[in-house]
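Attaching the record inline, Q. Sequence:
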Amino acid sequence: MTLQQIHYAITISEQGSFNKASEVLYISQPSLTEAVRELERELGITIFHRSGKGVTLTSDGVEFISYARDLYRQYENIIELYGEGGTLKKKFAVSTQHYSFAVKSFVELVKKLNTDEYEFAIREVRTRKVIDDVSNMLSEIGILYLSDFNTPLLTKLFRTNKLEFHELIRCEAYVYLRKGHPLANKSSIRFDELIEYPSLSFEQGGSGSMYFDEEILSSNHYPRTIKATDRATMLNLMVGLDGYTLCSGIICEELNGSDFVAIPYEPDSEHPGSSMRIGYITKKDNHLSRVGKMYIEELKAYLGVEDGDN
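Structure, as predicted:
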């Protein structure tokens, strides 16, 4: 088994077909197919299910690719630290819940690096996908939050997937809405004042999805709810329908615009508040790359977190 074969297998799993992978790798498809067959024979497993629509990982393949990504990431880290004159593009990817501050920090990171040398990716995805991406080493870092409500389930998933959560900052709940909203001039907003307006949240899908909700206080009952899949749509719904969402209050006006405001949520006995522990997840015992460390520093700078505070 060679690092080249491992790289081939990882690329095929990411591209979903031998044909697309061969184009990315600049290798003929027959040569790529034979390299993978040799790898499968050596390992004594079948890595890919092949069909006319492409390839999918077998159960053995899923486990192999997980280990392979760990191994290949370490190889890339060694090349990054000690290699000279290499043509291999270094990869850095982040998966995140829909946080503008995560995107802003990513932008500042990319500005400091030579994009000719790196292949960057940032993915705003569902909560479960954040966990899966880091677990499968598609992303080095995942950004999400924990609350009293979701902590038991998410920490169990972290343990199962050999992930570690690193807290950055704690925030109370805020109501995020447009500046022209009827409640926009209040110093704080109670739950009963929100009932006549639609509650906006990012669609998570699947059973038990409330535990993956990106919005704090998701266990409350909201009479009017609308799901969205991206931040732009969420903002449009705030403008068009006087919708609102519950968030951390950490808003990047440069990306979201200046037409919105975050107002503290005022808890009461029937609808108590809760804190958000915003942080990042990484693969357990996996040392962050230099770029990963730089990204965390950008996050801390934006959030005003001093070393030792978290």
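The mean pLDDT is 89. Residues 166 and 280 are 5 Å apart (CA to CA).

More tomorrow.
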